[in-house]
Each structure stands twice: as structure tokens, then as C-alpha cells.
């Protein structure tokens, strides 16, 4: 068995030789190699001696000469590792190992091959011959087991019963063994607790939420390809100029006379006339449904009809209590409003405190939306201003009327940049901090500048009492001393009109008078003139203190010495808002373009030869302190008696108001509709209708103290009352009372001024304007309230202008009707009176006759009575006498 | 309601002008009388506008007429009215001439 074991080992080894090749390396030797190594087949190596010993050096020489081509190249590493000097190369005749030669790679193999022959080895396997060494069998001796720690593992891995197993024995009755079994169906749920189930439930611990998902997408542009064939010619520039074919005059005449044309016209004219008349009658393409609806695109709540408080301004730094006398929005700059304030004292108190009042400056304050505490500009004036107005052609010129009768002019061109660059817009300044007076430091930009007035009118020749109203004349016409109207060539507003409590109306011209004063006098005046501070512009230097009115009109009441005391004026063409704004635009553009500001160069304006304008309406409305509305003319006429020029008598005069008329205003939509407010009622007039006001409201419970037309809705106007309420009238809604009443402040409202819509504003401001419209309301305590007008009050409904004009026309007709009725009534009254008189006469006559008849009847009845009594008394004598009398 | 116009056989351009003025009683804007070659003969508007209207309307008239006749060969175009936002253009076509009237419609 040991031999077998060894043999098997060897056999195994031999088998490994070829397949696993540990020793045998089959080789292919070409004839060339065979010649080199002298192992030519059948010559050097034969069947009997198939092997050849080759020296290692020879193989290496072959490597050197033939390198990779050498047949021994595959076994190069074996050869290099071979310990010995000679390798055994065996000719494999039978191709036992696949190739014609094989190399034995080890010394041991070589020895095995050379020395013990192969055949005897095989024979040994079949013989059970003597083993080379004796193998003594030793039975294994049991040794004690040495633990290496594995029993622990075994114990861990082994399975043992932890508890004793419970055994049940279930048995049936013996008789039933082997009995046939009947199976039946039963629903498990029919018996209670027949089953226990483990319902599946979604366990949140085990739900996986996919937080990421890998998705691939690709954006592919849509491409469409088409092709077309064009003829490519050389590109060249080409132009064509053509004119239409026209007939020559003769041809036209010829055609005109042709018979065909006349026939054509005959046939066609009828249908054309029909079509034209159809269009005249009715617009067939009107979309009634669309026209029924109101405008869309409201901003804000449509049902909100109240004025909303937006901002309020008070001058907190003034020492005395002031009231606001006049308010004006800056015509160009958004969010800037000018306010004139006056001290709240009566005349006596003014005189009493005159010393103290002299020390305080009278101001016009410029407020901006962006700063409610500090006014932007302060215009100084010699005394309290009661009315002022921006010049319509240059918003940097301001004219104001003073309490002492002077007209004051300011020129703020130098500061125009400052106020223009105030941050406009709805964002109010968030840093509204009210610093006490003593902490006020002059900040560079925030400091309000005191701007002194430029010119004041002459004290002697101007007004004597407070100027109640001031207006700039529009730049379309000019007036001369006699009131004649001329064309205005200078393109600027250069004339003013003022009215004052001294019963006069004055026209002023801001241009210098022609040099009529001789030179030495001028020099003298220069010496006497006061040193004017250098920062005052010299625009109106020629006017300062020597300004005389162009003409003065006294509103006299005829023979009596009492005169009318005008409070407000309204000239025609006063409210052409759009035209004026365009002029301002052109003006400012011209100034920016570097041309000279015409106001700086007023002398040029005089040199124009002016053309008189014919049939210009020189009449205007005046409201007086007594509550009268006068329609008069400013043109002077020659008085036939004295030969002087005198003011004409008023055309019409009406006393409709119970108090002073403080508002006379033309409607911004209709040139001839005027609103007058005074006392306790309101009246609307139409220019040209002399019979009376179109509308006269009944007396209100509270006195009306200010009023203004709405600038966007033709039928709406605002009236301020003395108790701080504002009445909003809407003529389309109600004409007998205000449509709305809203409380603004606690004291009397002194001035109302809605914001003028201007085309001069930049587009983004215009957009703001479309959404927000403001109205400024000033009160007696000096506060200026800015309120926002709601949508319903600011946006006119469709056709509102025409509706209101129809309303006014109806009112005019109504007035006519009333007049006619009045006449008829008078007629009737007269007739009635006549009849009454006639009746009286007739009844007198009638009654006389009746009286006689009655008396006679009475007498007869008395006689009868007498007879009866006497007969009853038995005085037959009477009877006999009577019968005797009867006989006779 | 409408009195037919009787024209003297010997007409002239002046007569045409009087017709125009008579029709201009309302809010009409302009009249344009054109020949078949779409050259205007007489007009109340200025020359460039007249030629523009005449040229533009000529093609329109031809198209309208061909449309009407294509639908029904017995039919023919008698009157054409184009209503736009601002005004109405009326065309009375004929064999040889056509008359264009521009009118502002009532509001």
C-alpha cells in the first residue's frame, strides 16, 4: 500500500508534467535551430536516443544572435533559472506533449528521465513488489484532548430548548376511530374569536420616503426646416419715385360735361343721400351693451366715497396763531403746495399788537409731501398776504396781495432747482423727527430759505385796503389804460388784476414804463433808493415801490357815495388749464434751451406793436361783500356829460347771498358757468343769462366759507362750512342739497383747492395722478389738510360733461319758462284785479234794487200781519173800514 | 323724405360742386368723384388725400364687385359702406365712375 501510495504520487506527478507543466516544456524547434544545436530529427536524435543535452551557454548565445526569433525564447526564463549547465532536450516523436520537442526544466526531472527508465516505472505499478522502505503501522494512541477554545463556539451555536416543551395529548373516543369524516364549510368570521389575524398595517417606521429622484430630461428646441428656391440675382439698390396720374384741367372739364357723368350722378345721388341721412339719424353700429357699462379699471374701492386724509401741514415754529388765507398748488412740481398764512386777529387787535407783529415775518410757506415738518421755502412779505397766485407762464414768479393794499412780487428762479429736486412721490419721509426750536441746526439742504420779495407796489397809488383777490391775466391778450384789449405778442402773462376792499379794481402791468421820466430824476431816485440785498433777483427792480396800476375801476353804486366792495373776481378765459400748462411747458423748454427768460427781459415786450382784438368779451363777474353778484365791464367809456373816461355801469346785479361772496369761480369745463358761494347758500350762473342764477340753493344750516369746482368732474363742487365740514355737491345726484357731508377739522374752513391736472408732469407722475387725486383744505387754525379724493368723486362717468351741459340748458329753459310764467302770472293777476273791481261795482248796484224789493215785501207782509192781528182782536171796524175801503 | 336730384343734361364741374355742398349739410367730411381709371375728377379734399382714397378704394371696389358677381352672376354691386372707428366711407360705384363720400358718424 505504501508503494502504491508512492506510485500514485509519482503517477500524479507525471500527469502533471504535461498538463500543469511544472517540468515539461514543449517546444517547437525549427530545422535551423536543430542544425544549430545538433539535434536534427532522425539524425542526431532518434527513437533510441531521443534526448540531447544542451549546454546553457549555447542557448544564451542563440538568444543573443537571434533574440525573439529563437525557438527557445518561450522558455527563456526557465533556461535562466536552470541551476545546472546542461538542459535536457527530448525529441517527442509521438507528439505526446503536443510539439516535436520538449525541454525538461528541472535537474530532478532530468535525472529522473535519464536514470530510471520510464518503462520499468510503469511495470512497478502492476507488481506488488518490494517497497523501498518498510512502513510500520502504528495504531493511533488516544491522547487527552487539548482545548483550544472551540467548545465555546459550539455551545453558542448549538440549539437547546429554553423551556420545557408542553405536550398535549388529544384523543378521540375509541368508537369513532376510523369513522368516516364529514367535512363542512364554516366561515371563520361567523364564530366569535374563531380566528386571530395579524392584519397588515402600514408601519411608519418602515416606510421609506423617497427624497431624491434621479430623472433625466432633455430640452430640445423645436426645429422646423423648410426650404424654398429663390432666384438669386445680384443685389442692388433700387428706388422708385412715382406720382399719381391726374387729369389735366381740360380733361376734367370734358369729363365733367359728359353725359355719362350726369347720368351716373343722377342715379347715385339718391342712394348716397339715403346713406348719409341714415347716419345722421342714428348710429347703427353702437354697441348698446358696452355703452351701458361704466368705465372699468378702478383703482381702489368703488363704493368708497369719503375723502381720505393723506397728510396735513402746520407751521409749528410760528409764535402767534395763524390762519390760512390762500392755498395754491405748484403748477408744475408734483407734491408742492404753497400756503399763505395770516395772523388771526381782528383789526383792533392788529392795531393793538402792531409792534409785536412787525417783528414777525409774514410768510408764504411751500410745503412738500416728502417733509411734513419743515417747509421747503418761505417767502417773506411786508405784511400778511391774503391772496396770491403763481404766474401761469412762469411758475417761478408769484404775485400776492397784501393786507395793506400792496401787490408783492417774488421771483424764485434761483431756488427753482432746490424745490424741483425734492424727492417727489408718495413715500413720506420716514425720519419725521420734531426737534425743539433750540436744537434746530441749519442743515444744508433742509434749511428753509427765507426769500425776500422782489418788488412791492407803490403805497400811495395802489389800493388803500386789503387786496381780496389777485389774478394774472392770461397771456393771450393785453389791456391798455382804457381797457381796450390787444393781442399779447410777448407770449407771457404780464398783467395782473386785483380787487380790494376799497371798492376799486386795478389792472397792473409788470413791464417797466416807457422812459418818460427825465434822466436827472432817475439819478436822484437811485441815490435815494434803498440798498437792496444782493441775493434778490433784479427781475422787478423797476417796479419796486414805484409800481402804479395801469388803470383803476371804481365800482360805484351810482349816485350814492357807497360803493360796492368787491371780494372776488372772475374773468373770462380764466381757467383754460390745458392751454396754460402747454405754455408753461414750452416756456420751461425754451429756458432750458438757453434762450433768455422773457421775464428777465421785459423791456423787449413793450416794443411790440399790438393789434387790437375786436369783440373780445371784456365783461367779468364780481362778488361783493354785501352778497351781490355783479356782471360788469372793464372797458372804459366816454361819459357824454363830462367827456372823461369812466367805468361802465354794471350789466346786471343780483343779491342772492346773505353774506359776503367769497368764491366766484368759472367751471373748468364750461366757459360760461360760474359758481358763487357766499353767506348761507350757493348759486350757479350762466354768463349771458340775465334773469337770474340757474341754480340757487336754499339756506344751509351752517355758513358756507369756501368753495371750489371739482377739476375732473363737471357736476361736482366742494363747499366748506364754518364748522369744519365739507359739503360735496353732485349735480347729477341731487340739486337741492349736498350729496355728501364730511368732517375735516374742528374749525372754519378757509380755503379749498383741488389739485390741477397738468399735462406738464412726466408720464410716471401722470400715472400716479390717474390713481390719486388730492384736495387741499385749509382751516382757520392754520392747518393745511391734504386729502385724497376717492375714485367716485374724481373720475367722471361717461358722458358726464354732456349730461351736465344738458342740465344747465334745461335750467336755462326753466328760467325762461319761469320768466314767461311770471309774465303770464302778472298778466293773470292784473286781469283778476280788474275783474274783482268790476265785481265790486256790480254787487253794489244789485243790492240797491234788492233792498227796495225786500223792503216792499216786508211792508206788505207787515200789512198782512196788522190785518190779522186786528181781526183777531175783534176790531171789526177796521174790517168794515177795510171793506168800505175796498169798496172805494 | 329725399328729393331726387334732377340734373340738366349739360352738366359741368360746377354743378357737381354744388351737389357736393348741398350734401355737405351734415357732418360729412369729403367727397371724391373718380373715373374708372381711378383718377379723381372732383373733390372737396386736398389733392394727396383725394388720390390716396381713389387709388385705395379702386381695388376695393373691384374686389367687392367681383365677389358679389361670383356668388350670383345676376347680381351687381350697388353701394359699399366701410365703417371704421373714426368715420364711415361710402362708395357708390358705377360702370364708368364712382363716388366716394367720407362721413363722421353721429355719436
From TrEMBL, chain A:
Any one GO molecular function term: dynein heavy chain binding
Coiled coil: 817-868
A biological process term (GO) from this entry: cilium movement involved in cell motility
The keyword Repeat is annotated on this UniProt entry: yes
GO cellular component, one term: inner dynein arm
SUPFAM superfamilies: WD40 repeat-like
Keywords: Coiled coil, Cytoplasm, Repeat, WD repeat
Subcellular location: Cytoplasm
InterPro entries per UniProt: Dynein_IC (IPR050687), WD40/YVTN_repeat-like_dom_sf (IPR015943), WD40_repeat_dom_sf (IPR036322), WD40_rpt (IPR001680)
Function: Acts as a negative regulator of cell migration, invasion, and metastasis downstream of p53/TP53, through inhibition of Arp2/3 complex-mediated actin polymerization. Via its association with the multisubunit axonemal dynein complex, is potentially involved in the regulation of cilia function. May play a role in osteogenesis of dental tissue-derived mesenchymal stem cells.
Subunit and partners: Interacts with ACTR2; this interaction reduces binding of the Arp2/3 complex to the VCA domain of nucleation promoting factors. Part of the multisubunit axonemal dynein complex formed at least of two heavy chains and a number of intermediate and light chains. Found in a associated with the catalytic heavy chain DNAH2, the intermediate chain DNAI4, and the light chain DYNLT1.
PANTHER family: DYNEIN AXONEMAL INTERMEDIATE CHAIN 3 (PTHR12442:SF5), DYNEIN INTERMEDIATE CHAIN (PTHR12442)
Protein name listed in UniProt: Dynein axonemal intermediate chain 3
Native source organism of the sequence: Capra hircus
UniProtKB/TrEMBL annotation, chain B:
Domain Roadblock/LAMTOR2: 16-103
Source domain of life: Eukaryota
InterPro entries xref list: Roadblock/LAMTOR2_dom
Matches recorded under SMART domains: Robl_LC7 (SM00960)
The family this protein is said to belong to: Belongs to the GAMAD family.
Name used for this protein in its record: Dynein light chain roadblock-type 1
Source organism of the structure: Capra hircus (Goat)
